[in-house]
Amino acid sequence: MAWTGLLIGVIFGIILQRGRVCFNSAFRDILLFKDNYLWKLGFLAVGLQAITVLFVAQMGWIRIAPPTLNFFSNIVGAYIFGLGMVLAGGCASGVTYRAGEGMTTAMFGAVFYGLGALAMRSGIFSGIRTWAAGFNITVAGNSPVYFDKVGPTLATIFNINPWIPAVIVAVLLLWYTLGTKTTDRPTKFNWKVAAIALAILSPIAWITSVAAGRNYGLGITGGWISIFDTFISNQPLRWDGYEIIGIIIGALIASLLAKEFKLRMPKNPKTYLQVMVGGIMMGAGANLAGGCNIGHFLTGLPTLAISSIVASIFLILGNWTMAYILYRK
Amino acid sequence: MAKYDVTKSIDVRGEVCPVPDVETKRALKKMKAGEILEVWIDYAMSKERIPEAVKNLGHEVLEIEETGTSEWKIYIKVK
After folding, report:
1. Does A258 touch chain B (CB under 8 A)?
2. Cβ separation of B53 and A33 shorter than 8 Å?
3. What is the rounded distance in angstroms from the CA atom of residue A258 to the CA atom of residue A275?
4. d(CA A287, CA A206)
5. What's the ipTM?
6. Phi-psi region of B75 (alpha: psi -120 to 50; beta: other; left: phi over 0)
7. What are the residues facing B73 on neighbouring strands?
8. How many Å apart are CA A293 and CA A220, to the nearest integer?
9. Is some CB atom of chain B closer than 8 A to the CB atom of A33?
10. Do A32 and B18 touch (CB under 8 A)?
11. Name one Pfam family in it (chain B) (predicted).
């Protein structure tokens, strides 16, 4: 069933390309340009998914697996990831879908992202990860919607029904995103449409991924590792590996149809060095943190996992730090 | 041949996000009122985002001219 990842990935890639869904821009623009367009897209998608993902879990189609809490890994990994994404010129999903649009710097960023993640999982950086695993915090799931052992969430901490914090968070985010002023941007596939599309795709991704034996929703990091495991060690491609290939194909199709595909190259070769360093930092950081901007922000936050809340805060802070250093003036 | 009396031209094709946006802002800061900046881009998102950002800064977007496949020139009049 791993091939279903390909279908999900293609749709995900089309949404990312048409919606211009780049979390690196989302986090940075609100700081540098006072532009909240993509920022709101992200938070609306999170708010809606708090409901849609919990709904499919309530129906018994999946059991939610909120990521493990580890203050060291979540904070340090996410912060390094955040610094790296500015250097790489895109987040984990950003460099992946832009590779499909013909951005050559994104292709380098994405491949080095996978290498960095691989190095942290089982390569030269893996000692840090193994050492930090001693600080992992998991608890017993307090509801049938959860796995038996999960990373703590708002619901497990207060030992309440997961619907209570989910509804509160969803209402707050909907009120914020829909009730306040949004930066204009002339695009046919606007931020609300993109957020709704993501909130519908996300639970379907969970269902098909769980059916393939992978207990999580949309993600990028594990997928790039899977591609390398297949390419280098001849292992079968996993659901998220198919998803990555799908994203690239989806973005390629969408950009070709919109006449936006082009092999793009910067004039200064130094940019390639910058994106490769950024890619390694992002990959290593994401694997240490247990997720990237998709695994922790887009998919993890809606589960209200404390780890994803912590990681999201620090990947945004990392992004702001590097964006401030490079682009404030 | 030139459509506008361009004072300064920047070519930010192929640059990573957000270099085109930042270079546009940096160029505008150094220019005087009435002068015209030409920004050469090749990324669709820049075509949507730069004109909005420029308008928010109070400048006037004269035209977004398509110059090739996924290539545009944005003409901005400094206010």
Report:
1. yes
2. yes
3. 26
4. 20
5. 0.89
6. beta
7. B40, B65
8. 9
9. yes
10. yes
11. TusA
Answer yes or no: do B15 and A266 touch at CB < 8 A.
yes
Residues of chain B positioned with their CB less than 8 A from the CB of A29: 18
pLDDT for position A186: 80
> pTM (2 decimals)?
0.95
Distance separating alpha carbons of residues A193 and B58, to the nearest angstrom:
29
Residue A298, Ramachandran bin (φ over 0: left; ψ between -120 and 50: alpha; else beta): alpha
pLDDT reading at A321 higher than 90: yes
- Write the pLDDT tens digit of every residue in A206-259: 999 999 999 999 999 999 999 999 999 999 999 999 999 999 999 999 999 999
Q: Is the CB of residue A242 less than 8 Å from the CB of residue A2?
A: yes
Q: Distance (Å, rounded) from C-alpha A5 to C-alpha A60?
A: 21
Check pLDDT > 90 for residue A52: yes
The tokens describing A79, both together, are 């912060």
Tokens matching residue A307 = 């780890």
- Out of B13, B18, B56, the one facing A264 most closely (by C-beta) is B13
Task: Say if A186 is an interface residue toward chain B (CB within 8 Å).
Answer: yes
Looking at the DSSP assignment, which residues form a beta bridge with residue B60? B77
- The answer to which of A184-188, A192-196, A318-322 has the lowest mean pLDDT is A184-188
Domains of chain B: 8-77 (3.30.110.40)
